[in-house]
């Protein structure tokens, strides 16, 4: 088994494990962080598939920008949930 | 496998860097609270990255590649310092108390 | 979900996995791809990188549609009128501001480099736009406005990529060629013009999607009201 095959198997296995964890966790914040980790590992996979352009875009947008957007949305959701529970569930 | 002296030194540095990365990850899993975990992640990973970058700089193909690698190390240090400061500040504001050794 | 439904779903997904694995075992070791069709025309395409040539010359129409989709997504997000969060990084604002003041100019230089290197190596308009968007997000987190107070700058910046792309296509039509068929010899200039405006536009669109409102993109989040 050559070194590059071992590396590819590690990356693929890591992706599957991360996605399994991501889909099975009830905590939203943990799911978003796992999503960002999956994006970083996916960008490594693109490099191994000889596609450096896609790897750059995956790292910047998939891991970075989408992660930031999801965390921002999580903040919105949680602040609205907080305000609706303190109001006693008014209009929300 | 026949290796020149430069390649041997480079490999040694990269392996040492990987050891520090591994130590940092073990620390992140095993340490008791947010603040100690931040210590382990930023310090050990930065040292590991520095060693890996030194190993790569030795066998870089020309000086522009070497400067790009050193720039990567400097930027990662800047970014991880910022992130660690922000995380610990937010943890403090959320009221997470530092871990105390139970007597 | 009942137990029977779960079992059926697992069986279906297991069958799909088996079919995918069987298909994967029949994939040739070295992909054939479209290299045979792209390589003879690469010299006159205006870019040495095959990916850039395909994105901006051979399949330029698809890239134009992608940018329109990005613009539509941004307009949909902005039309929700979400009330903006307070600036997220307030407790350690000064450290982040210093870090941002070092990083943002460097990011703009890196974005310019990626744009220029896209002609011969990995890079191009989308990668450069992503770095510009990250610089915009960093500015927003550091409690600084991204575009100052001019509403016109926002509107022009966001639509510039699509408008210039369409304009180049229409100019080709008016010069007697087909839509987006660059005249020979002008392919490189056309690609550079489209890529520059596209990078700026994509960066502003993505940063605007993060800011979630036009006002925040222009003027920043503003002070925190409560402790």
Task: Quickly list its features.
heterotrimer, B: 103 residues, mainly alpha, 3 helices, C: 227 residues, globular
Give the SSE order of chain B as H and E letters.
HHH
Backbone CA Rg of chain A: 18 Å
Overall outline of chain B:
elongated
- Poorly predicted runs of chain B are none
Please state the structural category of chain A. Answer: mainly alpha
> What sort of overall outline of chain A do the alpha carbons produce when their principal axes are compared?
elongated
**Rg of Cα set of chain B:** 17 Å
Poorly predicted residue ranges of chain A: none
Number of strands of chain B: 0
Largest interface: A-C, 15 and 21 residues
The helix fraction of chain A, in percent, is over 70%
Main sheet properties of chain A: none
Notes on the structure:
The complex is a heterotrimer of chains A (about 90), B (about 100) and C (about 230). Chain A is built from 3 helices and no strands. Chain A has helices spanning about 5-25, 30-50, 50-85. Chain A starts with a helix and ends in a 5-residue tail after the last helix. Chain B is mainly alpha-helical and about 100 residues long. The mean pLDDT of chain B is about 90. Chain B contains 3 helices and no strands. The mean pLDDT of chain C is about 85. Chains in contact: A-C, B-C. The interface of B and C includes residues 85 and 89 of B.
Short summary of the structure?
The complex is a heterotrimer of chains A (92), B (103) and C (227). Chain B contains three helices and no strands.
What is this structure's SSE topology?
The complex is a heterotrimer of chains A (92), B (103) and C (227).
Chain A: H1 3-24, H2 28-48, H3 52-87
Helix pairs in contact in A: 1-2, 2-3
Chain B: H1 5-30, H2 34-58, H3 63-93
Chain C: H1 3-25, H2 35-38, H3 50-58, H4 60-79, H5 93-117, H6 125-141, H7 151-174, H8 187-211, H9 214-219
Helix pairs in contact in C: 3-4, 4-7, 4-8, 5-6, 6-8, 7-8
